[in-house]
Amino acid sequence: MRTLRVDVRVIAATNRDLEFEVEAGKFREDLFYRLNVMPIMLPPLRERVEDIPEIARFLVDKVSKMQGRPLSITDSALRILLHHGWPGNVRELENCVERAAVMSEDGIIDRDLILVSGVEERVTPLRGGGTVDLDDPGLDERERVIAALEQAGWVQAKAARLLNMTPRQIAYRIQTLNIKVRQI
Description:
Blueprint: H1 18-23, H2 29-35, H3 52-67, E1 72-73, H4 75-82, H5 89-103, E2 108-109, H6 111-116, H7 141-151, H8 156-162, H9 167-176
Parallel strand pairs: 1-2
Helix pairs in contact: 3-5, 7-8, 8-9
Organism: bioreactor metagenome
Keywords: ATP-binding, DNA-binding, Nucleotide-binding, Transcription, Transcription regulation
Protein name: Nif-specific regulatory protein
C-alpha cells in the first residue's frame, strides 16, 4: 500500500452550529478545526428579501437555458415571491421557479404559476400600523383591493368606500381577482 498525495480544497456547508456540536461532544474537534479554516456565514433567504428578485431572475435565466426557450418572470410573480418565508432557502426558490417554468406555456412566469407551484400568497401586515397609498401606480388592481380590505379590517363595504366603489363592485372584483376574504 502506498500513500498518494493530493491537493484538494474542501468546501463544506451545514445549517448546524458546529461549535456547539463540538462542545456537546457530537462533532469531532479536530475535524471542526480542519474544516473551519475560512468560515463564510450566509444568512437565510428570508433575511435577504431584497435579494429575491435578482436571485429569481438568475434562476429564470438558468431554467431558460436548461429548457432551451426564452423565459421571463412578471413583477406580480416577484411580489408573491417576496412575501414567502422560504424555509427551504434558495433550493426551495429554485424548485418553485423551475416548476412554474415547466407549467408556463408561453414562457412567462406570472403570479398564478407561482401560486400553482406551491407558494402561498400572503398579505404582509402593514408595518407600524401605517397605511398603503391606494393611489400608488406601483400597485396592481389586486394589490390595491387587498390593501383596501386590510385597511378596512376586511369589511367589504368600508373597503369599497376607500376605493370609491359600491359594495357590489368590490364583491365582483374580489371574486374575479380570486381574493380569499378573511373571516374576522
